[in-house]
From TrEMBL:
It comes from Tolypothrix tenuis PCC 7101. SUPFAM superfamilies: DHH phosphoesterases. It holds the Pfam family DHH. Residues 73-226 form the DDH domain. This is Phosphoesterase domain-containing protein.
Length: 420
């Protein structure tokens, strides 16, 4: 019965040919937005269904080839509900092939909702810092997986690569960030949440959800949360996302989801939002705010402040940034978040254009539909903040530099990426 909503098209058609070799050729988000309704809704669904069944089959083959192995699922340093829930779904799928997965991230769970999600569902994610990574025996893992990221937002990537662990799979909905060569790849930037992709895998039979299994109910709840949070409570969801949510609605626990969503904002997050409000400048429907210094654990206040600023009348895009410092390591990094409700603004393109690349050719950030982020390491300029005059000066330099780079794009005279 579960399969009926995905009557899988096996007949190849014109549309398939266009998207068939999906891997690295996936076009950037802007050009890969789904065709409009005038292209024929049914056609679109058929195309998407055949892609889903093709990808599910490929993933199944990959899992079969790796039976009885141990794998690492690497999430971004600050994993969000979409990443966490999908990693769990992968772990449950892989279990059927006797593949044991550890879900790991290097940073912190800094958003109160993420902490609530992990605690209330017993979601099996672990923090592996660069420090305690040294105590791990990486040779016991035969593969690693990137979910809801492509390695560019994880400090763990290089250590795992250096240990010679092969990249088995990349499953993500961000635009292609890096030239990775995994055995299996499913990167679909036009899908609003990785949770949608995983729900489609479940629906196509990679794991049969059972309401009487507590873990399945919790994982479905987590996926529902991931899907909702990446689609602005479904307001930016598209047909595929709604279909996925509809499927999850058969299994998820509404009360549990409600409990996760009830998590309150901490005072420190409220303080950062207050600073963002006070410091914001609004130009051409862009709201830009620097919030100064933040503790590492409060890092997630930045996207929350951006979520808040973008709700202002006449604002379609908000960018909030600050200097995040890690007290132990004296490490500082500028972290920023972008939120937009403007469909024609591609956050990935915007951030890459605004901040460019580092000396290794790595972009300082990227994005997906509606949201993006960036991280600029401060290197030699890290620390020394006991001297408050120096700390203030340093902030002003970074603040000014970031504003200059952003305003170049915001100002219609100088740049093509513009509001009409
Ligand atoms: Mn996501």
């Amino acid at each position: 019965m579960q399969f009926e909503s995905l009557s899988l098209t096996t007949e190849p058609n014109q549309e398939d040919a266009e998207i068939d070799p999906v891997p690295v050729e996936v076009p950037l988000a802007k050009t890969s937005l789904p065709p409009s309704a005038s292209d024929g809704g049914i056609y679109l669904i058929q195309r998407s269904n055949s892609l889903v069944s093709q990808k599910s089959e490929e993933l199944q083959k990959t899992l079969l080839a790796h039976r009885h192995e141990r794998q690492l699922i690497i999430l971004q340093d600050f994993p969000d509900p979409d990443a966490l829930s999908c990693a769990w779904a992968y772990q449950l799928i892989a279990q059927q092939y006797d593949i044991k997965c550890e879900i790991i991230y290097a940073g912190t769970l800094s958003h109160q909702e993420n902490i609530a999600l992990v605690k209330l569902t017993n979601l099996p994610a672990q923090r592996w810092t660069l420090q305690n990574l040294k105590t791990k025996d990486l040779s016991s893992y035969q593969g690693f997986i990137l979910i809801d990221n492509q390695g560019t937002t994880s400090q763990l990537l290089s250590a795992v690569q250096q240990a010679g662990i092969p990249l088995v799979a990349v499953i993500d909905h961000h635009s292609v960030q890096a030239d990775l060569k995994p055995e299996f790849i499913d990167v679909r930037p036009y899908v609003r949440a990785t949770a949608t992709i995983f729900t489609q895998y479940l629906q196509s039979g990679l794991l049969t959800l059972d309401s009487s299994i507590n873990q399945h109910v919790k994982c479905a709840t987590a996926l529902m949360h991931g899907l909702r949070s990446d689609t602005n409570r479904l307001m930016q969801a598209q047909e595929e996302d709604f279909m996925a949510a509809a499927y999850l609605s058969r299994f998820y626990d509404a009360q549990l989801l409600n409990a996760i969503l009830q998590a309150n904002r901490s005072k420190r997050v409220m303080d950062v939002i207050e600073r963002a409000l006070k410091n914001r400048i609004v130009q051409n429907n862009f709201s830009i705010a620097g919030v100064g210094y933040l503790r590492y654990d409060d890092r997630d206040a930045i996207p929350q402040a951006a979520d808040f600023l973008v709700t202002e009348e006449n604002v379609h895009t908000a960018v909030v940034y600050g200097i995040v410092h890690d007290e132990d390591d004296e490490l500082e990094v500028v972290i920023g978040s972008l939120r937009t409700t403007k469909l024609t603004l591609d956050p990935d393109e915007f951030i890459k254009e605004a901040f460019g690349q580092d000396s290794n050719g790595r972009f300082f950030g990227g994005g997906r539909t509606g949201a993006g982020g960036f991280e600029i390491p401060m290197g030699f300029l890290s620390g020394g903040n006991e001297n408050s005059a120096y700390a203030k000066m340093k902030w002003e330099v970074f603040d000014t530099q970031i504003k200059q780079k952003l305003l170049k794009l915001v100002n219609p005279k100088d740049n093509p990426i513009q509001s009409e």
